[in-house]
Amino acid sequence: MTTVRLPLFPLNSVLFPGLVLPLNIFEERYRAMMRELLKTPEDEPRRFAVVAIRDGHEVARTAPGMPDQTALPRRGPAAGFGDDPLKAFHEVGCVADAATIRERADGSFEVLATGTTRVRLLSVDASGAFLTAELEELPEEPGEEAGALAEGVLRAFRQYQKRLAGARERSLSTGADLPDDPAVVSYLVAAAVMLDIPAKQKLLQAPDTATRLHEELKLLRAETAIIRNLPSLPAAELTRSPTSLN
After folding, report:
1. Which neighbouring-strand residues pair with 96?
2. How far, in Å, are 4, 51, 71, 82 from residue 133 at the CA level?
3. CA angle, 132 as apex, 127 and 138 as ends, to 5°?
4. Coil, helix or strand for 87?
């Protein structure tokens, strides 16, 4: 078992390998994390782990009492995540590589990162200025018939896009717009489909690519049928331009 210890960034969203993650950093615990990452030489990856929040708050709440816009948020690396942060997060997350970390004049940060590798959360340490975690790296196994499943998922995804856009007479994407690697297809579709966090999390932690693709095929067919019967659903931004991992 290969393990690694990395800074931990909990979010109210699921990050998939290959997908870009823009972040606006303003809380002190995450500012401290970015300052630490900036100490890493530029020719080395500046890595941190992203996990979806199961039970907690992405931004620390203010002190108890009546709402007060001037009140300061609770302090500490685990603020908003209870007495045992490990229980507040989903078990499987994704390592992010920060390509850009830009500090603003007010001390906040603008960060652009990319998901790289799935990891399983083993433990959380809240003793420092920010959360760190011990993580087990998860290999991406292809599973059986991943290639054939990927083709079916791409066809279903195109139909899903067309239904969202209300475009029944034209194609929104050509084969050149979408990848053909089954693992990449599985992560791209998982990120693009409008699903809640538990559903996306289930896709992230699928045991292999084929299992993820099989689940996506069912979800796409079901969602497309719903949209067909409820044509007033709003279109998503993903239908307005060719889908890209970048």
Report:
1. 48, 115
2. 8, 10, 30, 16
3. 150
4. helix
Distance CA 69, CA 172 (A): 44
Look up residue 55 and give its amino acid: D
Query: For residues 136 and 5, what is the distance between their CA atoms, to the nearest angstrom?
Result: 9
Tokens linked to 145: 């018939």
Structure tokens at 146: 């991943």
- Determine what percent of the chain falls in helix, strand and coil, rounding each to the nearest 5: 35, 25, 45
For every residue of 148-205, DSSP letters joined together read: HHHHHHHHHHHHHHHHHHT-SSS-S--GGGS---HHHHHHHHHHHS---HHHHHHHHT
Tokens representing residue 65 in the block: 């009492």
Q: What is the pLDDT along the chain (246 residues), one digit of tens a residue?
A: 789 999 999 999 999 999 999 999 999 999 999 999 999 998 899 999 999 999 755 555 444 444 455 555 557 898 889 888 899 999 999 999 999 999 999 999 999 999 999 999 999 999 999 999 999 999 999 999 999 999 999 999 998 988 887 744 444 444 446 678 999 999 999 999 989 999 999 999 999 999 999 999 999 999 888 877 765 544 444 444 343 343
Query: Residue 228 corresponds to which tokens in the numbers above?
Result: 């067909």
For residues 105 and 97, the answer to whether their CB atoms sit within 8 Å is: no
Q: Residue 69 — φ and ψ, nearest 5°?
A: -65, -20
